[in-house]
Design goal:
Strand order of the largest sheet: 1-2-3-4
Oligomer: single chain
Distance between the termini: 181 Å
Helix content: 25-40%
Number of helices: 4
Mean pLDDT: 82
Amino acid sequence: MTTHLPYQQHPPAPAYPTAPPWAAPAQAAPEEAPPPAYGSVTPWGAPLSEYGQLLVPYPEEMINAARPRPPAWWPVVIWTFFFGILGIVSAARRANQARRVRNSPAPYWIAWGLTMAVTAGLSVGAIAVALPAYLTYRESAVTKQVQDNIQTDGRLQESAGVTAATATCDPLGPRDSGGTRLYDCVLALEDGRTGSLKVSADSDGNWTAVRN
């Protein structure tokens, strides 16, 4: 009968040395100093580190991103168009509001100036067209009044003893400094005859016969 000896625990074998016997013994690494409480400090003369930027095409535009929206400029155009120079009140008020929120006041003054220029140009054009049209209408009315007066005021009957059934007058030249104008009139008399008469009349249609 074979009896096994009880298991005996042997101490572990020492680690195999990796350094030759003549090598200097390894020194322990010096302990690192703890970082300062206020964080790392860039050494004097070192270039400044670049900080991260927003991932947008133009980061400088983000400086004004938090500004409030400025007031609209189009009411300045409406006020100036209908009230003329009084639109400067709206332009000044809105420019001040824009300046308070750090926006440019220039758009409101530009809108006021351009609207004033356009309105002035339209006014001059309207006057240039309307004035000749009014003068033509006025002279046509005066000519008709001269014709009616020749037929109805009785002066032709008193001076020549005839009565005009119709009178057709054409103005001759402009009015003189006294406001009178010459007219060449063709008369159709009540007795069937025709005749011509040259008269001078004022702007109210009061006429006076002029000898040729």
